[in-house]
Fold this sequence. Notes:
26 strands, alpha/beta, FAD/NAD(P)-binding domain
Amino acid sequence: MRIAVIGAGVAGLATAKVLLQAGHDLAVFDKAPDVGGVWSATRRYPGVTTQSSKAQYSLSDFPMPEDYPEWPDGKQVQEYFAAYAARYGVDRVLRLGTEVTSARRDVDGRWTVATTVGTEVFDRLVVANGVFCEPMVPAYPGVEEFTAAGGRLLAGTEFHDAEEARDRHVLVVGYGKSACDVTVPVSEVAASTDVIARQLLWKVPRRIAGVLNFKMLLLTRMGEALFRYLRPRGVEKFLHGPGNGLRRAMLNSVGSVSVRQFGLERLDLVPAGTMEDIVRGAIGLATEGFFEGVAEGRITVRRDRTVTRLLARDGKPFAELSDGVQLPADLVVCATGFTQGVPFLAEDVRRELFDERGNFMLYRQILPLGVPGLYFNGYNSSFFSPLNAEMAAVWIAADIAGAVPLPEAGAMRGAVVEQLAFMDAATDGHHCRGTKIIPFSMHNVDEVLGDLDLDVTARVRASHWLNPVDPAAYRGVTPALLARLAATAPEPGARVLPFSPAVEESERNVAG
């Protein structure tokens, strides 16, 4: 089939690689001039690094270079994805610097995709533009007056060089990982650096007590099991039943360690609640140097406050906070989240995509209900986003081949509604319109592969309970599916591109 993929981030690249290997004809569109999505040079802010460690942020059959640090920076991650695209021939089907302006489903079931270059028709469409595609910048009153006085208001992804902050008064709005990441390099050159935090969030140390890598706790199946899932099973039933006290002690002890390790009481930065509540906001890795900067006075955190308006005073730009304080603000950097949008899809398609609250209605985070021939990938933001995207790509390839035994439409809709209701309760509604599955990353992988009767062996799964999940253990999944599809192809001679290296070894880890 001829298939269009919108987006050349990790989800788009993984989808393209799997579909090319399945023998399809691809075009991958991205308005950026390079691959990488959020890691593109056009979107990288100073100080950005991965949140998961490099092994856990890798694709299954393409490990990150050994000389990369444990938490690679944005440039390194972008170069890694570019190398992946070149290794698997995805670079040959890329249409970079090409924005998709509209995509509509025709009466014959195919898709007409219009771009800034031209219009083409495809048999299938995969949306992989990402859940962090459009930064959300608040509409502050007074922005015109503020700008006229020389002030600048921009999203974090629009701030690319810390030198822009040199000798300036800078406000960083937000307290998530991106806000803290950008604050550290800014604070090293700015005249003043204030962080405006509407709500403090728990930060997980990269090394707990300065020794234990956080991946040994949260990036394991045991770490995921500490949070109650919709359908608990096995050990999870114990942890959320008779072992609930032990579970809470394990999780909240990390919070106690964080308070001591970072001196949060002394800095007046202890978040409300317990570490168990971390899933209800944003699970953030602590930025190296952030709390040290607060302790040294280079960074001031204005907790429990918001920016209410921007203004000019004596011809200079200022920002007024919710407590009435006015701060000089030559530069206001908003690390205030993103909107999840698909404005290029036709109105009739968008009506089918969302529930009454604007949540995406996606079965397995992939398949929209009532829109044949359309798939989503990357709408399952997780601790293991590359692995989740890769397994979703396998699912898409299988469904295109008619090899996914889907429930009837009513059952699928019921499953989506049930999942959204659960995530509402689990995250207090902080699930990015249904696109964030943290902390239930591996549950999503298990469900996707369960549909295909493919999975790693029980031995490998057991090893991931106490050791960090290793995406490389899943490198045999794609070859196993492709071999199955080739064996059941209706026409002999169907083209299947060569599998990746180490297939024979990796298939021993795959059951199904």
